[in-house]
Specification:
It contains 7 helices and no strands. The protein has 157 residues and is mainly α. Helix 2 packs antiparallel against helix 3, helix 2 packs parallel to helix 5 and helix 2 runs parallel beside helix 7. The longest helix has 24 residues. It starts with 10 loop residues before the first helix and ends in a 13-residue tail after the last helix.
């Protein structure tokens, strides 16, 4: 399988992705736990069917010390006992923030209030920003059919 467009060779994609990547680096300096950020990126990528980002974030999370059990259970986090209440709230926010079109009104007040129990305003800002950024990457990769499987952990660090 090959991509419809060469995202890595395109000057336009390169410029756009540089800006999105730079925005993402701001999140690395936030107080939102890095593990939570990776779990959220992985879950949104799964929902969007972005194989490239699912591959990338599973491998990056594993390289950062995330367990295989937790990574394998992200897609079924509601039934899994391996996530904290705070992580569960972040995953729920990621799901509703990713599936905006599925629910008239977007993210429910209940989901927002639950996330706000565990995260302060700056952490919520990082969560919202991270969810928006990964959704942008997912959509681009799905449209161009960017193949999955060849990513090496830390490749874009």
């Amino acid at each position: 399988m090959s991509a419809r467009l060469d995202a890595f060779g395109s000057p336009t994609f390169g410029k756009v992705f540089q800006h999105i990547i730079a925005a993402g680096k701001v999140l690395a300096d936030s107080t939102l736990p890095a593990a939570t950020q990776e779990l959220v990126r992985l879950r949104a990528s799964q929902i969007n069917g972005c194989g490239f980002c699912t591959d990338m974030h599973a491998k990056d999370a594993a390289a950062a010390g995330e367990t295989a059990v937790r990574l394998n259970l992200v897609a079924v986090w509601r039934e899994a006992t391996v996530f904290t209440d705070a992580e569960r709230a972040a995953l729920e926010l990621a799901e509703e923030g990713t599936r905006i079109a599925d629910a008239a009104g977007g993210v429910s007040d209940e989901v927002w209030a639950n996330a706000a129990k565990y995260y302060d305003d700056e952490q919520l800002a990082a969560l919202v920003s991270g969810i928006a950024l990964i959704n942008a990457f997912n959509r681009a990769n799905v449209m161009i059919q960017q193949p999955a499987g060849g990513y090496r952990a830390g490749q874009f660090a």
